[in-house]
Amino acid sequence: MKLTTMTQVSLDGVMQGNGAATDDRRNGFERGGWARGKGEDDTREYIARTYRRAEAFLFGRRTYELFAGSWGSVGSMRAHPIGVALNTAPKYVASTTLTAPRWDDTTVLRGDLADAVRKLKAEPGGELQVHGSGALVRWLLANHLVDEMTLVVVPVIVGQGARLFPETGPDLAFGLVESRVDTNGVTIQVFRPAGPPRYTAA
User: What whole-number distance in Å separates Cα of residue 202 and Cα of residue 199?
Assistant: First the structure.
């Protein structure tokens, strides 16, 4: 399977609390819901189509529990095309503490995570998708396990909150595969890793 990620980010790189205002209030975050309803119909349909392509899903624990309590539990959300995709595909969680997953067809990955992910990637099929899960995405990128990364960029500066990429970290160049923008200014950019960046000589 090809490992792909999809992340909603603000112009200043924030990914925390993009959905409901109360989803994630860690560290005093008070500006939740900044992405909700921002994309036009074509953008929402693009995101739903992406979910429907998944052969399986991989989550970090926080995103898994958020999704399990919404897409996995609320009737109207389960019936949505995204909910149908999530509820009919296998789900994997990278966690050292989760012992009793409450969502059907969930496997907790323990032990050597890199080895477990490589084994999943070696299985036949379409996409192993990661949504949200910022810490996991950063770890996957640092370990060169991401085949394709999609950023849904919402034209807002949130000004606080956890960002997708830290102030310092590993570097990686990308090649652009696809780019689109809707009339609300929400852009979707699809990238593939392209090795180390090249820097101008001193």
Answer: 9
Report d(CA 22, CA 11) in Å as an integer.
21
Query: Is the separation of the CB atoms in 94 and 168 below 8 Å?
Result: no
Mind listing the pLDDT tens digit of every residue in the chain (202 residues)?
999 999 999 999 998 877 765 666 766 667 767 778 889 999 999 999 999 999 999 999 999 999 999 999 999 999 999 999 999 999 999 999 998 899 999 999 988 999 999 999 999 989 999 999 999 999 999 999 999 999 999 999 988 888 899 888 889 999 999 999 999 999 999 999 999 999 998 7
Structure tokens of 141? Answer: 């990128």
Q: Is the pTM of this model over 0.85?
A: yes
Contact by Cβ (8 Å): 170, 145: no
Q: Which CATH class is domain 2-193?
A: alpha beta
Domain chopping of the chain, boundaries: 2-193
Q: Classify 159 as helix, strand or coil.
A: coil
Q: How far apart are CA 158 and CA 21, in angstroms?
A: 13
